[in-house]
Amino acid sequence: MAAASAAAINPSNILAGDENNDQQYDLFISYEWGIKKEVEPFHAKLEAAPQPLKVWRDNRLQYNNDSLYAQLGRQIKRSRLFLFLLTKAYTQSTMCKKELIYAAKLGKTIICFMIEKMTSDEMGDEIGFIMGNCVYKQYYKNPKSLDPKKDVRHSNWFNDYFDDAKELILTNLNVFKFILKISFFQII
Question: How distant is the alpha carbon of residue 118 from its chain centre?
Fold first, then answer.
């Protein structure tokens, strides 16, 4: 019985990223399309970095008979971490909130990058509730700005904060892998 259970949670299968595995991506990026021009270079840098990550975002949607919800749900399931880029537009997007709530429901490790400064009221109860259980960083401040009143939205966050963002993602990914290995050894 233990051997069958161990095969189901074999870390070498999960971490290898083969096609029979439910964990094909390191990171799912959820964002509102208004910041697509910022997300594209961030995504590219994550995949081209010295420790490249396998990243999924909606630029990989297949327009076929598979529903949008089924595709998004499957890719959230297949990702080790869920990253959402919080802006005011994100809080207004029904689709973005559905992705976030689904990731929380699945028990995914959730990371939030606050791209825009906002109050908890502006965030809304659903997002605010989930924020209480996730890792988040504030990337809306311009490190070159001397006026804190202007630090509400920094459009170059993906360059100025890239090293910090990548380190946070890698740390959480390594924690995921470590917990997975411990779970495997407890089964054996």
Answer: 20
Residues 6+ away with beta carbon under 8 Å from 130: 100, 101, 104, 110
Helix axes 162-187, 36-48, angle to 10 degrees: 60
Sheet holding 55-56, edge to edge: 55-56, 25-30, 79-86, 109-114, 135-138
Query: For residue range 39-94, what is the model confidence (pLDDT) as tens digits?
Result: 999 999 999 988 899 999 988 666 666 688 888 999 999 999 999 999 999 999 99
Position 12 scores a pLDDT of 32
**Is the Cβ–Cβ distance between 160 and 143 less than 8 Å?**
yes
- Show the domains of the chain with their CATH numbers: 2-187 (3.40.50.10140)
Q: Reduced to 3 states, what is the DSSP secondary structure of residue 139?
A: coil
The first and second tokens of residue 146, run together, are 């001397």
DSSP 155-173: TTHHHHTHHHHHHHHHHHH
Token couple for 177: 């892998």
Task: Compute the distance between CA of residue 104 and CA of residue 143 in angstroms, rounded to an integer.
Answer: 31
Two tokens, residue 99? 């992705």
Secondary element (H or E) of residue 58? none
Q: Are 132 and 104 in contact (CB under 8 A)?
A: no
